[in-house]
Amino acid sequence: MAADADLRADLGRLVRQLLTESGTAGPRVADEIQRHLGVEVGQLPVHGEELASFELANLQLGLDAALAQPGTTARVLGLGGHMHRFAAISLSDLMMGPDFAVGPPEYVHEPIGPDETLACLASALLLVTSPYGPLVVLVRRGEQHGPVPGLMVQAAGRDEGAAPRFLAELRRLMHERDVFRGRVITIEADRRGGRSVVFLERPHMERDELVLPDGLLDRVERHVLEPTRHRDELLALERHLGRGLLLWGPPGTGKTHTVRYLTSRLEGATVIILSGPSLGMVGAFGNLARRLAPSVVVLEDVDLVAQERAFGPFGSSPALFELMNEMSGLAADADVAFVLTTNRPDALEPALAARPGRVDLAVEIPLPHERERRRLLDLYARGLPLDGVDLDAIVERTDGMTASFFKELLRKAAVAAVADGRMAVTSGDVEAALAELLDETAALTRMLLSGQPAAAGTVLPPAHAWMQAPPQISVRAFGHSG
Hints:
This protein is of the alpha/beta class. The protein has helices at 2-21, 29-37, 56-67, 91-96, 162-176, 216-224, 226-229, 231-236, 255-265, 282-291, 318-328, 370-380, 391-397, 403-419, 427-438, 443-450, 463-467; strands spanning 47-51, 73-79, 102-103, 106-113, 116-130, 133-141, 151-157, 184-189, 195-200, 243-248, 270-274, 295-299, 336-342, 361-364, 386-387, 425-426. β5 (116-130) and β6 form a beta hairpin. α10 runs parallel beside α11 and α12 crosses α13 (391-397).
């Protein structure tokens, strides 16, 4: 028993030392809350909600608007010391606990546009004076890589109903000022597995910059663009607005370029691009798309998560069911389009097309035929002085190649010209570039650019030669790729 008493005494001394080192000798947060509310806080209810961490900028804009209303002021306090960094601290902890000292508020700078950021409270307590009565509001964002990620806002007030009314008004103001509305965004992963929202510039693209077989783009535009343009008329006719489009075909034929064109035409619509690991976040960003309609959700290489349930030993990714729920759960007036791209339509789950409102239109973007190949050469030769280059001869020799092949062909020819001190591209430059791209020693490059298998017996470069610097197809670039 004596040993237990000694242990408790040692622990008590350690706790007191930690509290002293963490700054609790200064003003205590609990005392500030007590003085501001003017009542005993032990029995006051705490109201709050959890938000996705990417909503931090919206929360800050909502708070700024709420605190700018007539009769509303706030004093902002931070949480001092080190103790608050190791747990998911709640407002009730601050109201009742002796362990938290007043410190400086913490801010992080969140993007609100392609080249714009906003200083946002990440950990702070607001002592609010409002028409609802005195309130205390806690804003706390968890560590993105920690055990408690996400974003929390909580409130308590002296007067009954004050905190719920404040939070409801805050949510309204957040929606009114939503930074994602009408933007083009994508999701990027960092080295530690965290996710962040990245704003992209909306591309500007003319119709003749997209080379597809005759009539194909008309079908795509009619399916994706027209419901938004004629929303009121369709709703008057009791037609639903949700729709799904699948673009499929070999790599490099123009699927991403088609998405880029649609994005350029949907001015004012929110476009959310998910690819790679972020495909698993379709549930969270499907909710965002509904909130910010008119909107488009793009899922690139959707076969990564929408594989047929009978395919493989472990079935499909859980993201498949999230995707199907999001696509089929839209309200009739939800102006949301899902655009899916894949190189492997054979691997997709059939249920994606089994119900109206999911995939209503599947369009193959094929390898370009002769007429399209000539149009592609004309397109990528714009602004490039050509000296004696026979484009028709190139068309005849490039059967089976893709849009990205022709872009690379003329780029290589231009590099050869400028390296030789010339601005004009000659037939020799083009012949050399064409020979390089078609040569058997470039079998891997040809396979990646055209989607064609390497010829039997072809010796590919050693794996390490291309694994060190694999080709990159960037969502940011919005290039003419697959």
